Automatic annotation (TrEMBL), chain A:
HAMAP family: NDH1_NuoCD_2 (MF_01397), NDH1_NuoD (MF_01358). This is NADH-quinone oxidoreductase subunit NuoD. Residues 8-130 form the NADH:ubiquinone oxidoreductase 30kDa subunit domain. It comes from Candidatus Marinarcus aquaticus. It is a peripheral membrane protein.
UniProtKB/TrEMBL annotation, chain B:
The keyword Iron applies. PANTHER family: NADH DEHYDROGENASE (PTHR11995), NADH DEHYDROGENASE [UBIQUINONE] IRON-SULFUR PROTEIN 7, MITOCHONDRIAL (PTHR11995:SF14). This is NADH-quinone oxidoreductase subunit B. It is an enzyme of class 7 (translocase). One of its GO terms (biological process) is electron transport coupled proton transport. The keyword rRNA processing does not apply. [4Fe-4S] cluster binds at C39, C40, C105, C134. Belongs to the complex I 20 kDa subunit family. InterPro entries: NADH_UbQ_OxRdtase-like_20kDa, NADH_UQ_OxRdtase_20Kd_su. The lineage of its organism: Bacteria, Pseudomonadati, Campylobacterota, Epsilonproteobacteria, Campylobacterales.
Length: 544, 171
């Protein structure tokens, strides 16, 4: 049975986690979530359990810690004084499940609107109970508190200018709202509000079969949909204990890395538009359009591909794929060179990006930042190296590291990672094995159409899989992949039926955004804009 | 520099209806206000980029300022938290204004039939053109823009558009 690594008493929760951090250097808090066992077939000690997912300093080990929350109090101590990342993670759990975290400095909703009543991820909340929001929030409950904690007197606070950027603003890249307290153009305090694109991903997962969830994962990070497909399917395959074929693994690597390239293109192109350089955008976007032509030929869709299946892939590569792919890679290389030639030795570009939006190593780890944002700060953490999957250890590629953690580092790391991805793709294409792309597993994969129309077993098989879904063994499990933005994890709880009991996505940029306000405080508005663009916040991912 | 007509007409006077002249000008100088929230917003970026080239339709001036725009393109999911923001921006746009609802989410909530998603933006603001798809291909967006151009050509400039609309946020 799939189990969490540790079960502790709520009273020992904090001390256990503190011990893990101090003694065994579990320095990265990946995620916090809750499970509502109200309708679970096996009786549990209490209705709610909390799950904490940690990763150690070598980044190789992760641990999941579970605690049963007392039904009467529904509260546990907050970890905000141990990990910065706990701030938003606990707020989200409070918002979705109504579990209180004692000692949290600002326990309020984060995804749902402030007029919302109840807690949507509880099992007794009906999925279609919509609640209308008639006005936006002022955020004046948070701002004065924050300013006071920074030592500003009432007089000083009255003299500040308050500015709202977003949730619909060209500089906010999606639906993020930042509320700023300004002195001149300097940001003295910043409050970030999200939830404007909260689309109920996790609740929707509880009413769909495992395969029906794949299209939902596309829309988490819609700049690299396939990487999300892979992350999700890999988790379910591990729960089912299925090893996909070598060919499928290689194709996943190839298409996944291509998606990473596209993701980085969008981020860098938009970033340079924010700096005032539209030409870069044309240069690198034309390569992206080529990549989309290839993806639509392969998967039938440009953006939301739903390409993987539990147990393999939807289609094998088409004839002439290798040539098309090589054309795309050449276009990417050319686009990168062209775009870089405009900025590489450009004084304005350097002044605007270097030493701007600096993220230090220590803060990045404490805030749970992963991916390029973390590597740009100089921390050598890439799941493809620390916990290789799909033969990543057999490919020759480098982890790209920055030294300052500023905007410049993040942009350049992305450009270099695109090159590394091209390297990986070329090696994978060269060694691409023959064979099937799908495992033989009638209880997981749909039968061939000729069987569906040709014999009763095939027809039954199709029916059962479509209506009942894939039966995943009971238990709970966490797995992660290196997605476009960093560690993309899925914590899945199965009750043994064809529909997951719970799916929690650990979105990399939720934590990066949680740290954003601290990063920009003290800087200028214009710098905050480029900092935001460089950190690649994708609304579909942090809001889910 | 001219439109080329001067070689035919010289400096003679051309008479036409005011409606025709104004509508002609309007339909070829749409200023979209892109309310891009999600995946569809990314596809809209492709519409504006080199390959699909929105500027062929005179609609490339993408401004995030409602006061300058006359065409709202809602590209992406609208949640209940976002709805008042969308309404406010729509209200701030000056007449005449048109609205395109891009993608399944904006049209009907898409496959997000749950507690947070507005089941179609026409519950909040009036919509002129709907585009199917999740996300729609860029060609479909261009098609909708051409349909709006057609629409704007045979309307009267003195008539106020969509004045009988009442969404659930119009108390
Ligand atoms: S219609 Fe589809 S692509 Fe567009 S925003 Fe909705 S989910 Fe995304």
């Amino acid at each position: 049975m799939l189990k969490p690594d540790m079960i502790v008493n709520p009273s020992e929760l904090k001390s256990t986690i503190k011990n893990l951090k101090d003694k065994e250097s579990f320095t990265l808090l990946l995620d916090i979530t809750a499970i509502d066992y109200l309708k679970f077939p096996v009786k549990q000690p209490t209705r709610f359990a909390l799950v904490y997912i940690l990763r150690d300093a070598s980044f190789k080990k992760s641990v999941t810690i579970k605690t049963y929350v007392d039904d009467a109090t529904l509260s546990v101590p907050s970890l905000t004084d141990i990990y910065f990342a706990a701030d938003w993670a606990e707020r989200e759990t409070f918002d979705q499940y109504g579990i209180k975290f004692e000692g949290h400095p600002n326990l309020k909703r984060v995804l749902n609107h402030h007029q919302f009543e109840g807690h949507p991820l509880r099992k007794d909340y009906n999925i279609t109970d919509r609640q209308i929001c008639t006005e936006t929030e002022g955020l004046m409950d948070e701002m004065p508190k924050l300013l006071t904690s920074k030592g500003y007197t009432q007089q000083e606070q009255d003299d500040m200018m308050y500015l709202n950027i977003g949730p619909s603003h060209p500089a906010s890249h999606g639906t993020i709202r930042n509320f700023l307290a300004l002195e001149g153009e300097t940001i003295k305090a910043c409050v970030t509000e999200i939830g404007y694109l909260h689309r109920g991903f996790e609740k929707s997962c509880e009413t769909h079969t495992y395969s029906q969830i794949i299209p939902y994962t596309d829309r988490l990070n819609y700049c690299s949909a396939i990487l999300n497909n892979i992350g999700y399917c890999k988790t379910i395959e591990e729960m089912l204990d299925i090893q996909i074929t070598d060919r499928a693994q290689f194709i996943r690597v190839i298409i996944g890395e291509l998606s990473r390239i596209i993701d980085h293109i969008v981020c860098n192109a938009a970033n340079m538009v924010d700096l005032g350089g539209l030409t870069n955008f044309w240069f690198i976007f034309s390569a992206r359009d080529k990549a989309y032509d290839l993806l639509s030929k392969l998967t039938g869709a440009r953006l939301t591909n739903s390409y993987t299946r539990v147990g393999g892939l939807e289609y094998d590569l088409y004839d002439g794929f290798a040539q098309d792919l090589e054309d795309v890679l050449k276009a990417v290389e050319q686009g990168t060179v062209d775009a870089l030639s405009l900025v590489e030795h450009n004084r304005i570009f350097h002044d605007r990006t270097q030493d701007v939006g600096v993220i230090t190593k220590e803060f990045a780890i404490s805030a749970g930042i992963t991916g390029v944002n973390l590597r740009a700060a100089g921390v050598n953490y890439d799941i493809r190296k620390t916990n290789p999957y799909y033969h990543y250890d057999s490919f020759d590629f480098d982890v790209v590291l920055g030294s300052h953690g500023d905007v410049y580092d993040r942009i350049m790391c992305k450009f270099e990672e695109m090159r590394q991805s091209i390297r990986i793709i070329r090696q994978a294409m060269k060694n691409l094995p023959d064979g099937e792309v799908n495992v033989y597993a009638p209880d997981v994969l749909l039968p061939a159409k000729k069987d569906v129309y040709g014999n009763i077993e095939g027809l039954m098989n199709q029916f059962k899989l479509t209506f009942e879904g894939i039966k995943v063994p009971q238990g709970e499990y966490y797995s992660a992949t290196e997605a476009g933005n960093g560690e993309l994890g899925f914590y899945v709880v199965s009750d043994g039926s064809g529909t997951p009991y719970k799916v929690k996505c650990r979105p990399p940029c939720f934590y990066a955004l949680g740290a954003y306000s601290k990063i920009v405080e003290g800087g200028m508005i214009a710098d905050a804009v480029v900092t935001m663009a460089s950190m690649n916040f994708i609304a579909g991912e942090f809001d889910r | 520099m001219g439109l080329g007509v001067e070689s035919v007409f010289g400096d003679s006077v051309v008479t036409t209806k005011l409606d025709t002249a104004v509508n002609w000008a309007r339909s070829y100088s749409m200023w979209p206000m892109v309310f891009g929230t999600a995946c569809c917003g990314i596809e809209f970026m492709s519409v504006a980029a080199a390959k699909y080239d929105l500027s062929r339709f005179g609609a490339e001036v993408v401004r995030f300022s409602p006061r300058q725009a006359d065409l709202m393109i809602v590209a992406g999911t609208i949640s209940f938290k976002q709805a008042p923001v969308l309404k406010k921006i729509y209200d701030q746009m000056c007449e005449p204004k048109w609205v395109i609802s891009m993608g399944a989410c904006a049209c009907s909530g898409g496959f997000y039939d749950n507690y947070t998603t507005v089941q179609g933006i026409d519950e909040i603001i009036p919509v002129d053109e709907y585009i199917a798809g999740c996300p729609p291909r860029p060609e479909a967006v261009l098609d909708a823009i051409m349909r709006i151009q057609k629409k704007s050509e045979d309307e009267s400039i003195i008539k106020e558009r969509a004045k009988n609309f009442k969404g659930y946020l119009d108390a």
